[in-house]
Amino acid sequence: MHIYLIFLLMCFLKYINAEHTLNVNKNNNIILFKPTKQPFYINKARYRESINSFFVLNFKPGTYTVSEKPYSQFSGSISYGNKLLKNTILKNNKWTMIDTVNFKLIKKNTVNILSTISLNYKHSDVVYKLIHNNEIIEISDNLNKLFTKIYDKGHHTITLLGKSNDIVCVCPTFEDGYLNSYQLAIWWSKSENNNENKTIHIKNKEILQNMIILNSTKNISDNNNYNTVSVIESKNINLPKLNFVNYFNFEKIIKI
Hints:
- The chain is mainly beta.
- Helices cover 6% and strands 41% of the residues.
- The chain has one helix at 2-16; strands spanning 20-24, 30-33, 41-42, 45-47, 55-58, 62-66, 72-74, 77-80, 88-90, 96-105, 109-119, 127-132, 135-140, 145-151, 154-163, 168-170, 180-188, 198-201, 217-218, 242-246.
- It has a 5-stranded antiparallel sheet with strand order 8-17-11-14-18, with no helix packed on it. Strands 3-4-20-19 form a 4-stranded antiparallel sheet, with no helix packed on it.
- The longest helix has 15 residues, at 2-16.
- It is flat.
- 37% of the residues are buried.
C-alpha cells in the first residue's frame, strides 16, 4: 500500500511538472491557451494573464516549452488592450472603463475578441459590458468569453467596462500579482473569410493562491539568463508589456 501511494504521488508530480514543446512559425503566431493548472509557464517564465480562464499571446517563430498544449492556434495580426493590466476601481454603480483596444481593418474581416477577467478575492457583484464602437456586444456578470464577429474595413474600438454598487478593485497588482488579472485582445487572419458570428463561453477555473512569486514588469527579448526582466519589444515580436516571473533561463515567446 505504501509503495502504491508513492507511485501515485510520483505520477501526480510528473503531471503537474509536465512540459510540452511548442513549435511556432508564421502560420501559427497567435496562440490561445486554456490553463487547467497553475502556475502556467512559457520557457520557465510566468505571465499574469495566465491565471485567466483563457489567455492569448503573439509569438515569434521558434521552439518553446509550455506547461500545457495550446487550446487553439491562429495566424494573423493581434492587438492588445491599451491599459496593459493597470488597476481600475469600480464604484457608485457607474460604468468605468477597464480596458480598450483600437485597431484598423483594411478590408471586411472576421475578428476574434477575447475578454477575460479573474478576481480571486471576496468582492461585491460586478456587471461587465463589452462595446464595439457605440454598439453593445454583451452585458453580463461573467464576460469570460471569446467572440467572433464580422466587421467592415475602417477604424474600430473595443471597450470593456464594469460597474458595482460597492467598491471593487480590478487590481492585477494586488498581493503577488498573480491573484487578479484581465485581458482584452483582438486578432484577425489576413486570409480569414468566415461569415459566421460566434461566441465561446469560458468557464471560471480554480486558481492556486498564496504562491511565492517574484513580481516584476517585463516583456520578451532575444536575450537569455534573465531573472526579473523588462519586456523589450521588437519588430519580430508583438507582445504587450506584461508582468511575468522568470525563475530560470528564458528564450522567446509563444503563439496561439
